[in-house]
Specification:
Elements: E1 4-10, H1 15-19, H2 32-47, E2 52-57, H3 61-74, E3 78-80, H4 97-103, H5 118-134, E4 140-145, H6 147-159, E5 175-180, E6 184-191
Parallel strand pairs: 1-4, 2-3, 2-4
Antiparallel strand pairs: 1-5, 5-6
Helix pairs in contact: 2-3
């Protein structure tokens, strides 16, 4: 049987990305540049040698706008999954990366004030991604999500833990491809050739 291919796509650029603010569960719209990135990744996926059979997305606006464009280009319905949402930063949503780094909990079970813990985040996103892959054996599936979700999953698949997530943060509308056979095998990482 062919392996399942999971194509992870980060949403297009937003004003918060440009300003360096942590969005978390915020709902910033795409910038004009973000809209161009979305068209480019949608066209790339349409040309792909492995036809996409399903598209999933985080329901947050920036991911939803990106996924809507891909779904329209490919003529597929969009399936929303709460498990693909960015980490819930609670009271720290909208702060800069520097402020977030200083305030980040050091214990994986400690929650951001009003948000979620690192352990809750990892369990949520990995359960969702494995569930999507398991529901589509031998198919190619797109999951549109967020930088923290994708980089954490890639760190886990590449290194066996999520602690190196900062090495894998994708640019907006980059795609990473993971094949699920006997085990996940990352075959493309933050590819931006279409941008």
């Amino acid at each position: 049987m062919e392996p399942t291919r999971l194509i992870l796509v980060r949403h297009g650029e937003t004003e918060a990305n440009v300003a360096g603010r942590m969005q978390g569960r915020g709902n910033d719209p795409l910038t004009p540049r973000g809209e161009q990135q979305v068209r480019a990744v949608a066209e790339r996926l349409k040309r792909d040698d492995h036809p996409v059979t399903a598209i999933y997305s985080s329901p947050l606006l920036r991911a939803r706008l990106t996924a809507d464009a891909i779904a329209a280009m490919l003529g597929l319905p969009l399936r929303l999954r709460d498990g693909l949402q960015e980490m819930h930063l609670g009271e720290l949503e909208g702060v800069t990366a520097e402020v977030l780094a200083r305030a980040a909990p050091r214990d994986p079970d400690e929650r951001y004030p009003g948000g979620e813990s690192a352990r809750e985040f990892v369990e949520r996103i990995m359960g969702t991604l494995y569930g999507i892959a398991a529901a589509h054996p031998g198919e190619t599936v797109v999951a549109v999500s967020h930088g923290g979700v994708i980089s954490t999953a890639l760190s886990i698949w590449m290194e066996g833990h999520g602690g190196s997530w900062m090495r894998y943060v994708p640019p907006n509308c980059a795609l990473s491809i993971v094949e699920f056979a006997a085990r996940p095998n990352v075959i493309a990482l933050n590819d931006c050739t279409h941008l």
